[in-house]
Design goal:
Elements (H helix, E strand, L loop, with lengths): L2 H39 L4 H37 L2 H7 L4 H42 L9 E6 L4 E9 L4 E11 L2 E14 L4 E11 L6 E10 L20 H14 L4 H29 L7 H28 L4 H22 L3
Antiparallel strand pairs: 1-2, 2-3, 3-4, 4-5, 5-6
Length: 358
């Protein structure tokens, strides 16, 4: 690499690191000021609070790094433009594409780091962050599906419960249906199901078993029955944030399992999986946009570039949140919802790059 590459690359990575170190303590301070009452009220041990804010730092750095990267690139590139350094680079015979190379190298480094963070480190931080939040800050908040739970537990059996209580290991209006091919062979119906944690058995109350015959059905009634059923109780309705806490390979396995079970939260899980790739890729797109809008010396100085950059950054975040939420809460394609901001801003990046003043 030549002097120009090292000069820009060191500023790229140094400014990005400085931006993270500046804003993360501010984020922690704001969050602590908002949560301090509940932390004191619940007498949370200091070591758990410290662990929570360590997880908080990793969790939000992973979510907001595109914003920090975008602003840091605009910041130092605007300084280069105001000091006429970019004009000097281009006047020396360096093409605009050659000038852009160290930015793309920096974006590649950040992208690889973001991939490692989102695939392996952020999931562990997300687990600690969410567990602390629901244990101390949102006591009593419902984090699992509890009404009208429907699952395919294997290739031939389906279950349903109108009311599912994970804390008490109970379910109401429980039904299990067993199929062979497309034919229903028998059906279990119970007014109440209780999971016995000691021996992993189930107690069924007011059980009716209907065996489907060729000419007539056989109905067997039991007041109370202890039996073994082909599913794990704690896997029926995973907590809503479960996908965020799994590494990439674990998440893929979990999604395959939930597809077979007919989970109602599939879109939520797919959005998390697609964002593991889309956020790191956004490093390239936002870097190109930042260079294109800030490499020109403007009459208003750095302030104009920063204002334009902040506006574009918040539009990107707005698109990311809105389309991600739409994909989670509706039948809208999670793939389109997650990648739409990158696609839209990718087109904008190409337009700005080819129309930037050389």
């Amino acid at each position: 690499m030549k002097i120009l590459d090292w000069y820009i690359l060191k500023r790229y990575l140094g400014t990005f690191t400085m931006m993270l170190l500046m804003f993360i303590p501010i984020g922690i301070t704001i969050n602590l000021a908002e949560k301090i009452d509940k932390i004191l009220e619940n007498e949370v041990p200091f070591i758990e609070v410290a662990a929570y804010y360590l997880d908080f730092t990793v969790y939000f750095a992973n979510l907001l790094f595109p914003l920090f990267l975008f602003l840091s690139v605009i910041w130092f590139t605007s300084k280069l433009a105001n000091n006429t350094e970019i004009i000097a680079f281009l006047s020396s015979g360096v093409s605009y594409w050659r000038f852009l190379r160290p930015y793309l190298i920096g974006a590649s480094i950040v992208c690889v780091g973001a991939l490692v963070l989102s695939m392996y480190l952020a999931p562990q931080a997300s687990k600690g962050f969410n567990e602390f939040k629901y244990q101390y800050l949102k006591k009593g908040a419902e984090v699992q599906e509890t009404n009208d739970v429907y699952r395919q537990i294997n290739d031939s059996e389906y279950i349903y419960a109108s009311n599912f209580q994970p804390k008490t290991y109970t379910a109401r209006n429980f039904t299990l249906e067993h199929f062979e091919g497309n034919k229903l062979k028998f059906k279990l119906s119970a007014s109440k199901l209780v999971f016995n944690t000691v021996d992993s058995t189930y107690t069924l109350t007011n059980l009716d078993k209907r065996i489907i015959g060729e000419r007539e059905d056989v109905i067997i009634h039991e007041r109370v029955l202890d039996t073994v059923l082909p599913f794990e109780f704690d896997q029926l309705t995973p907590v809503k944030y479960i996908a965020e806490t799994l590494t990439y390979n674990e998440l893929n396995d979990f999604i395959d399992q939930e597809k077979r079970r007919g989970s109602a939260n599939m879109n939520r899980y797919l959005v998390v999986a697609y964002k593991r790739w889309s956020l790191p890729v956004s490093a390239f797109i936002l870097t190109i946009i930042a260079v294109a809008v800030s490499s020109v010396k403007r009459r208003g100085g750095m302030g104009v570039n920063l204002a334009l950059g902040i506006t574009l950054a918040f539009i990107f975040i707005f698109f990311d949140k809105v389309f991600g939420t739409i994909a989670e809460q509706s039948t809208f394609s999670p793939l389109i919802g997650v990648w739409f901001p990158n696609f839209t801003f990718g087109i904008l990046a190409i337009y700005l790059l080819f129309n930037a003043k050389r």
